[in-house]
Amino acid sequence: MQEKDKETSIVKKRGRGIKKMILGAIGFLVILIIIFLLQSAPIAPAAYTPLKSPELVGVLGANDLLQKAELLVLGKTNGPEEVALDSQGHVYWGTQDGKIMRLKADGKVDTFAETKGRPLGMQFDTHNNLIVCDSYKGLLSIDPLGRIKVLATSADGVPFKFTDALDLSRDGTIYFTDASSKYEQSEYLYDLLESKPHGRFLSYDTNTREVKVLLKDLYFANGVALSQKEDFVLINETYRYRIVRYWLKGAKKGTHEIFIDNLPGFPDNISSNDKGTFWLALFTVRNEAMDKLHPFPFLKAQMSKLPKTLWPKPKPYGLVLALNEKGKITQSLHDPTGKYLKEITSAREYGGYLYLGSLHNDRIGKYKLP
Hints:
Layout: H1 2-38, E1 70-72, E2 83-85, E3 91-94, E4 99-103, E5 109-114, E6 119-124, E7 130-134, E8 138-142, E9 148-152, E10 154-155, E11 158-159, E12 163-168, E13 174-178, H2 188-194, E14 199-204, E15 211-218, E16 221-226, E17 232-237, E18 242-247, E19 256-260, E20 265-272, E21 277-285, H3 288-293, H4 297-305, E22 318-324, E23 329-335, E24 344-350, E25 353-358, E26 364-368
Antiparallel strand pairs: 1-26, 2-3, 3-4, 4-5, 6-7, 7-8, 8-9, 10-11, 12-13, 13-14, 14-15, 16-17, 17-18, 18-19, 20-21, 21-22, 22-23, 24-25, 25-26
């Protein structure tokens, strides 16, 4: 009997000990939650309610066309965000460690220049200079010997925070974007969560060296592409899933409007083939969890405090759209698996091929157009 009482007493003590441990753990967790909630967020988000994402049907219907692309420099690069070709057919691209690499005709890869920033949009001008938007260094011009000249780093007294994408007109004007005046390249996901218009669209006159702000208050101003007649230019607003048209000529000169809205993914760079077709690269398809989170600033503020590894993940998906000059989608190219090509950030047509860059991938796609 005494032994039984002892066992009962021991069980009760253990139970009380476990109960104290649980209560202590709960109390500690509550304290951590309070500290977390009181911690200031790195962003000041706004509410935004996206339109319902369009289904991938009809012209947007999934296919495996991108899986037919040739893969250049596979495993030999890191983040070839944009691709440009020179007059000799050499392929150039920027990398995450601030280099501009080159693929020669003999298949060898070398370093053309080092910006020590993050080269993004790039294109050759008529003098064989490579014009580059470096997210950290500004608007650059690199001559055929790899010598770097800084063209612009600010506009209207506001420094570029995220020099991003460009297109060159036939008269030499450079049209380009400063994706965000608040967040730099390493913080681009903060711009997504904050849902405020920090982006600018600008021009650089190569004769007068004057920088003009043509549009401001854009939601992550990204890709830039001139129309065939150069009467208008398109600018992607990545975090609004849309493209804006800015008129350069005609009765609407100096005004802007929505060119296409409610895209099925995040529009990154856009380019023109000078024949009436725009090639639009989408980083990935829409993220349903993120779209549902956007209307709630408080929740977005709390998420911004968490490590980015705990944020909603982008789906590995390859997607490129063809649009005509009226804003109609005429074709879509997919890799639904994302194993072959994913996170496509640029699509530019050269010599019957579509060259495809990526922000994080280790390859460049070369897709033969029909």
